[in-house]
């Protein structure tokens, strides 16, 4: 395995609104040595478990205003940092990161902590990763709250369903939203990649400079950002992509998931708009549920409306 970097602890001292103590677990993925994954573990040890999964380019800091709401409701909150993000270990070589390994690392967290009766809360890449863990460990998950997330499938049936198109056409063509291609190319070509640039651009209420700096804290230099950059290169844009094959397999599992599945999407995120309706139609557990639209929030709805999202999750746990 290549070198593994570990962000110095002092980078995380005094971050605004993030008083939580770090927890760590060794996680495994095929072909690599074990690495250390950071996670928050807040609330009563015997409470119902909410697993809060982030995506790119954030880390558990994104959930800092969601966590207290859930803890006050008697929920045990587990909020990990993906490998390559936050306080988790960061393999230095980009190709050490694959979609399958991200799934394996998160599944390893769930099994090592022996989490059960889990409410999965998934945003951005937290959906493709978390839903795939659910597909592999269905007995551990009691319910889902999907928040501004998608599932990479490139399925031709998605035509005209999504604001940001990604779907096959005929036998060998695809339709891809221009903005998505621009985003992918920028992240691969930019000499410096800062999470704060993306968080600031995809929220409706501009975060303070101190908050934006906290999103950048895990990356003291460019060598720490291999995983940050590689995750965008892993975006499946065709039906032939290994990630799309994983996504289709995961969708088949979701089409058998009859436990509560609630969508809580914002009204200001074109990147995921339309996926809430797709999940509501295709997941049995979503039918007949009270789904939520969070007004006035962008892609990072935890940043714009974290306490509101926390209340939605708490209500889903309490009433299903």
From TrEMBL:
One of its GO terms (molecular function) is haloalkane dehalogenase activity. Pfam families: Abhydrolase_1 (PF00561). Residues 51-165 form the AB hydrolase-1 domain. The keyword Hydrolase applies. InterPro entries: AB_hydrolase_1, AB_hydrolase_fold, Epox_hydrolase-like, Haloalkane_dehalogenase. The keyword Lipid biosynthesis does not apply. Keywords: Hydrolase. It is an enzyme of class 3 (hydrolase). Its EC number is 3.8.1.5. NCBIfam families: PRK00870.1. This is Haloalkane dehalogenase.
């Amino acid at each position: 395995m290549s070198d593994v970097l570990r962000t110095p602890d002092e980078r995380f001292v005094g971050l605004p609104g993030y008083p939580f103590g770090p927890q760590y677990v060794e996680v495994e993925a095929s072909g690599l040595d074990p690495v250390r994954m950071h996670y928050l573990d807040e609330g009563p040890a015997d409470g119902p478990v909410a697993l809060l999964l982030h995506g790119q380019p954030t880390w558990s800091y994104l959930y800092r205003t969601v966590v207290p709401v859930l803890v006050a409701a008697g929920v045990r909150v587990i909020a990990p940092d993906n490998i390559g993000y936050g306080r988790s270990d960061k393999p230095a070589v980009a190709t050490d990161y694959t979609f399958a390994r991200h799934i394996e690392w998160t599944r390893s967290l769930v099994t090592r902590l022996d989490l059960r009766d889990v409410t999965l809360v998934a945003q951005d890449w937290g959906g493709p990763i978390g839903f795939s863990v659910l597909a592999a460990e269905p007995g551990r998950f009691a319910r889902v709250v999907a928040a501004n997330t998608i599932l990479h499938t490139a399925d031709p049936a998605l035509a005209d369903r999504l604001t940001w198109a990604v779907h096959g056409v005929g036998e060998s063509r695809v339709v891809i939203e221009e903005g998505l291609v621009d985003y992918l190319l920028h992240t691969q070509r930019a000499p410096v990649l800062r999470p704060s640039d993306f968080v600031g651009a995809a929220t409706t209420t501009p975060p303070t400079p101190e908050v934006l700096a906290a999103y950048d804290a895990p990356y003291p230099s460019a060598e720490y950002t291999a995983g940050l950059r590689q995750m965008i290169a892993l975006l499946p844009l065709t039906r032939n992509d290994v990630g799309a094959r994983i996504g289709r397999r995961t969708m088949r599992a979701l089409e058998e998931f009859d436990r509560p599945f609630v969508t809580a999407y914002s009204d200001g995120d074109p990147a995921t708009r339309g996926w809430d309706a797709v999940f509501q139609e295709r997941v049995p557990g979503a039918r007949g549920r009270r789904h939520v639209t969070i007004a006035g929030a962008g892609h990072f709805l935890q940043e714009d409306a974290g306490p509101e999202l926390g209340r939605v999750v708490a209500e889903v746990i309490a009433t299903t």
